[in-house]
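Severity: low
Component: inverse-folding endpoint
Summary: output formatting inconsistent between runs
Steps to reproduce: submit the following structure tokens with default settings.
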């Protein structure tokens, strides 16, 4: 009987050691924003599988939010704008992993110059994803450049649909709020950049991974591994960008290697070290840092 008890104790000990520290696959939803491509790389390399992490790719920022709110993902990639929207409904929502800072990657495009838009009284057909950072960029534009908000004709579309627009009615006033890599097709279709987070828009746009605090506790080991995978993927990108691109190309919607490299100049990786200046801007923007891994 004593021997049986010892064997049972040993079995329970071994079972507890081998059992996972989480109760289900960690599901993360993301868009095709250039700053999230290290996650695609990690997925294609098979790293995510080793930690029971699943990546879901969606076509728009708003779809990403709806997916998370519906409970179909455990964490999502987004900006502080989406966080501020969801925080009112999910108080325990926190950023846990930083990816990048937009430095030209968020863009306002048009078929007219800013001066032409200001001097006209015509309605402006404005394409954007309403429940996203797009809305913040638009508000910043119309306030700083004195565009009457009543002239804005809001057209809520996802970025894949917006990218199909053509400047086939030059007299029509069109404004497009977008981000890389979708600007490439829009440029080919006759639109031009009039403002960006590098030129004319003094907005801090941080891309991060967000989750509930309770999910962070439950899946902490996986989240730490994910951060390591992200860092490892960025190191691979810096070492051999062509090899990196070849692996993530299926997610890039026809973007060429040269266009991909150019897009990288419009973001600043912040996965490791933060400059004192950026820390101060994040503090002033009330960006929470307490739970960052």
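Observed output (run 2 of 3):
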């Amino acid at each position: 009987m004593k021997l049986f008890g010892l064997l049972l104790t040993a079995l329970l000990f071994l079972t507890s050691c081998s059992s996972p520290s989480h109760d289900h696959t960690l599901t993360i939803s993301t868009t095709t924003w250039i700053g999230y491509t290290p996650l695609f790389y990690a997925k294609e390399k098979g790293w995510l599988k080793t930690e029971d992490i699943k990546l879901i790719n969606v076509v728009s920022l708003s779809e990403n939010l709806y997916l998370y709110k519906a409970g179909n993902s455990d964490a999502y990639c987004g900006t502080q704008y989406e966080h501020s929207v969801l925080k009112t409904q999910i108080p325990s929502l926190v950023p846990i992993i930083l990816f990048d800072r937009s430095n030209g990657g968020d863009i306002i495009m048009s078929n007219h110059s800013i001066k032409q838009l200001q001097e006209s009284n015509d309605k402006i057909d404005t394409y954007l994803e309403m429940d996203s950072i797009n809305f913040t960029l638009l508000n910043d534009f119309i306030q700083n450049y004195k565009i009457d908000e009543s002239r804005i004709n809001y057209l809520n579309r996802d970025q894949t649909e917006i990218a199909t627009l053509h400047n086939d009615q030059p007299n029509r006033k069109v404004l497009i709020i977008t981000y890389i890599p979708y600007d490439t097709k829009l440029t080919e279709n006759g639109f031009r950049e009039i403002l960006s987070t590098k030129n004319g828009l003094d907005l801090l746009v941080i891309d991060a991974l967000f989750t509930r605090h309770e999910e962070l506790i439950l899946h902490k080991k996986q989240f730490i591994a994910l951060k390591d995978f992200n860092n490892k993927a960025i190191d691979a990108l810096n070492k051999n960008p062509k090899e990196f691109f070849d692996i993530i190309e299926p997610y890039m919607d026809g973007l060429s290697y040269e266009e991909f490299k150019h897009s990288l100049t419009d973001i600043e990786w912040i996965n490791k070290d933060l400059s004192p200046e950026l820390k101060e801007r994040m503090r002033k923007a009330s960006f929470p840092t307490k739970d960052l891994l």
